Amino acid sequence: MPITLGPIIGHTTDTSAKIWIRGAKGPNHNSREFCYGAFDLYEGAKLVASQFCFLKDYYDFTGVALFDQLKANTAYRVECGLVYKRDADAPQTGVPVAGPVIADIRKATATFKTDRGSNDTRLDFVFGSCRYLYWDNLFQNDAEKGDKTFRSIVNLHRRRPLDLFLAVGDQVYADPLNKLYEYKNFDALCEIYRKSFQLPNIAELMRTVPTYMILDDHEIRNDWSKDQMRSEADSGFYAMRMRAYASYQHLHNPNTPNGQFWYSFAKGPFAFFVMDTRTLRINDANAVGGKTLLGREQLNAFFDWLHQNRAAPVKFVVSSVPFFPDPKPNKGGDDKWAGFNDERSMILEFIRVEGINDVVFLSGDVHNSSFARMRCYQDQQFLLTSLVSSPFYWPYPHESPSDFYGGRTLEFMQWTDGSRRSRDRVEYRYDGEGFIGDEAFMAVSVDIGKGKPWCSAEIFDRKGQPFPAYAGPFFF
Length: 476
Hints:
Helix content: 10-25%
CATH architecture of the largest domain: 4-Layer Sandwich
CATH class of the largest domain: Alpha Beta
Largest sheet: 8 strands, mixed
Strand content: 25-35%
CATH superfamily of the largest domain: Alkaline phosphatase D (PhoD)
């Protein structure tokens, strides 16, 4: 029997790959005949490995197979299908089995290439955010319009193969009309995931390019923070939202402990830390633990990651909401890092005092795309880069350049020396460029083949064309 969604190529290294699929409830499910995913992995015509995974109804019959002991920089093909088995005949899951295990001619296929390894000198990827899907009827077809952006990314991949695709928030809108209309139950929410991910162009992208995702507010509710969980009903609402998110997005990310949604990974020598800026945030300064965007554990893990990866040629930090530039307060600035200046100050201080270079923030959320650099008046070696790409598709008016502080000076009391013996006022200044309010995605390229990283970012419209207002690449 064919799978009902996927496959999605998830977290991939030079020796392993995660493959995600969705099955379906079988006709004998109530009599304990359960659904299993079946996978055959090929290198050319050679069968390399076979595996089963259990597709739990709790996760809407989604699941992953993890293949390891693969060869670096090697093209593979995976064939996927479904089998239904009673407990007594259940196959072993998550381990290699004798194959092939796919006999159905209606199998689904994906192709991918493993990473090139730690000695690689190049990295090419695309990222973006905010893919709205609601008005899908005779008068307004968001499905067709929103999928055009992904067709352009697929075409880019064919010309210039991508190492990964990053979707950095609002992959679905669980509250398409904000408080006027929200998906109220798990099945309805999963249906919008299925509608979004089965569209032909995004499906083609995700079955050929390793895909990484992180949520933002609309996977839960607009401007979400833990403060909104005031009752048992709110807690159940949140748990349902996160179960859908885990099923369709987090499951194919790198493994994390149960309930943790931030993660890190590497592509060759290049390091990535993907922040969860939603599920741990507390807006109420009087709450236990105080106001926070990341929470204590994640913030400390981020500092440790920065320290451990200080020698990486480029360190990419994914923050669904922009670290900078800042939207103005009447445009939701308090929901971004501008509303959490104490925590932002800690991060800036750590990067500056520790002398960590080549840190690049990747963000979305604000329905406007921009480039920005931040420097420090008291430390000429300090430099941060911010790349913001949003939205993939949004049918309403977009944000304009006047909605942002294009340039801004931030002042904090911080340590002024590496020995941490004195504190004083430290001033940071960022200046932004671009501020394109239109459907877009961003392509990033890095080359360290000549020593110092040579990095560029380009913003493309939904048709894959440069914007006349910012047609050239941004170098950082």
